[in-house]
Amino acid sequence: MALKIRHPAPEFTAQAVVDGEFKTEIARAYNVVIEEGEDAGVALRGAFIIDREGILRQMTVNDLPVGRNVDEILRLVEAFQFVDEHGEVCPANWKKGDAGIKRQ
């Protein structure tokens, strides 16, 4: 299944960790498991923002050597919440407390 923004996110019921061992069901549902080579079975570094309705709003997947920016992920969550509540657009670098832009 291809992941698409503004479409339902994959549903899953698997636990991410069982007895201290990472399980790949969730990573496979989001297509972030490396399938070949020396890193086969390892999950790439992914972050997925899913709203209350289960709709995928944002996804970022990085190769193993590069981490994610948690502050940026939190900023995006706050921006999506602002847009949903106010119906305005959040420009690049928008931060909680900033004004939005009215839609045309």
From TrEMBL:
<dbReference type="GO" id="GO:0006979">
    <property type="term" value="P:response to oxidative stress"/>
</dbReference>
<dbReference type="GO" id="GO:0008379">
    <property type="term" value="F:thioredoxin peroxidase activity"/>
</dbReference>
<dbReference type="GO" id="GO:0005829">
    <property type="term" value="C:cytosol"/>
</dbReference>
<dbReference type="GO" id="GO:0045454">
    <property type="term" value="P:cell redox homeostasis"/>
</dbReference>
<keyword id="KW-0676">Redox-active center</keyword>
<dbReference type="InterPro" id="IPR036249">
    <property type="entry name" value="Thioredoxin-like_sf"/>
</dbReference>
<keyword id="KW-0575">Peroxidase</keyword>
<dbReference type="GO" id="GO:0033554">
    <property type="term" value="P:cellular response to stress"/>
</dbReference>
<dbReference type="GO" id="GO:0042744">
    <property type="term" value="P:hydrogen peroxide catabolic process"/>
</dbReference>
<dbReference type="Pfam" id="PF10417">
    <property type="entry name" value="1-cysPrx_C"/>
</dbReference>
<keyword id="KW-0049">Antioxidant</keyword>
<feature type="domain" description="Peroxiredoxin C-terminal">
    <location>
        <begin position="79"/>
        <end position="101"/>
    </location>
</feature>
<dbReference type="InterPro" id="IPR050217">
    <property type="entry name" value="Peroxiredoxin"/>
</dbReference>
<dbReference type="InterPro" id="IPR019479">
    <property type="entry name" value="Peroxiredoxin_C"/>
</dbReference>
<protein>
    <recommendedName>
        <fullName>Peroxiredoxin C-terminal domain-containing protein</fullName>
    </recommendedName>
</protein>
<keyword id="KW-0560">Oxidoreductase</keyword>
